[in-house]
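hi support,

uploading two proteins for the ticket. first:
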Amino acid sequence: MSTVEPQVRRFSKGDTLRVLNAQLLNPDDTPVDLTSQSVKFNMTNVVTGVRKITSGSVSIVDILAGKVQYNWQAADVNEAAEYRGQFVRIQGTATEHFPVKEHILVIVFHDTV
């Protein structure tokens, strides 16, 4: 049985200028068409299981290519830890989580200064 490595994104504690970009893909690796849909972002602490972000607002950058962007808020990156992140596509009352085969590992490092 093979394991799928998570997508790893690294940020420094307190950094809000960099964004979290992603492309939502169907199981056949084609882009998800986000026409008439919305997307949210969730992030949970790997160690404690505490949800850090619930239904965070996501900008759709390219509707037909499934490209999205989450802009960090100060409270999102105020403590160093490892988190599991996931985008949620919403169409009416139906939802789908991305990535499907793995999760996004978000690592927030302590300041180095």
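and the second one:
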Amino acid sequence: MLSRDVLLSPPPPPISIDVPELGGEVFMRVLSGLEYMDMMERVRAEEMGERESSAMLLELSLCDEDGGRVLDDGDGLRLAEGHGPAYARLLMKAQEVNGLGN
């Protein structure tokens, strides 16, 4: 059985993701439970579809080496418009890292 200390431990550090379509790497982090709940509240309140909610997950998951956001609200859709294969790769990884999807 997991101890209280393990359950309340800090999240893992950001991981490096290779993005060959863009010729480099980015970092991705696990959302906290509160961040996930806030995201889902916003998705419901704004009646977002899958397109917008997926873009938001990516915006919140991509980060710098220290875990700080690198994309602003709305940047996820802009990334999808210009770099479809890179967007798909990153979205699948964001879903995996955050325990979402299939």
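thanks. also noticed: The longest strand covers residues 15-19.
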